[in-house]
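Hi support team,

I submitted a single chain yesterday and got back a structure, but I'm not sure I'm reading the token output correctly. Could someone confirm the output below corresponds to the sequence I sent? I've pasted both exactly as they appear in my results page.

Thanks,
R.
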Amino acid sequence: MILNADVAAIVTGAASGLGEATARALAASGVKVAIFDTNAERGSVVAREIGGIFCKTDVTSEDSVVAAFAAARAAHGQERIVVNCAGIAPAQRTVSKAGPHDMTLFETVIRINLIGSYRVLSKAAAGMGTLDPVDAAGERGVCISTASVAAFDGQVGQAAYSASKAAIAGMTLPVARDLTQLGIRVCTIAPGIFGTPLLKAMPQEVQDSLARQVPFPSRLGEPEEFASLVTHICTNGYLNGEVIRLDGAIRMAPR
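Hi R., thanks for writing in. Yes, this is the structure output for that exact sequence:
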């Protein structure tokens, strides 16, 4: 797919971090970008700066997502790209001094990270399937979700988070197979330790300690590197059904 002003995209969780970097990279390529996020203040700023549109969106709410898609499509037309970056990462052990894992928290993580991603992806794909192909191969669109190295190397306290991200990784191939007849590609990125605002708010010694765990390059990943991979997936028509680790070769220790 060629990225230009004829293409519309939706990026969830785009008010900050990986999502924001992705929205900015796509917009820099000329793509019309709709930002789906709960943070209206920051999301509106990013949308204004990139010439896009902000749609206040709770990915756990069917009504909210439907309304956001309607607003985005009214402004930009049917999207050909959707990138799922919305997610949360609370930590809690299966059993702690306080007792067993809080099931409300566990369910919330699954609803946001997994079900929210699938809700957005499936609705985007349904719309993409109505478009004319962009090339001789019949491509109509691309869906990209965000897993994590925790899908494979979950640490202590990451049961809920790892479960949600492993499920995203696990559904990548079957969803890609589901959408072959519509000409829609599906990929997932599994980032390692990235310098998002949440991590950058940690003490410098903590950031340095985390960076030293990365074999090479021994530093935190930059959100722009994640965004660069997103744009490459969009433009490389042979990437499909794949989960790509973007992690500097790190394999997470238990703690």
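A quick pointer for reading it: Strands lie at 8-12, 32-37, 53-56, 81-84, 95-96, 99-100, 141-146, 184-191, 242-246. Let us know if anything else looks off.

Best,
Support desk
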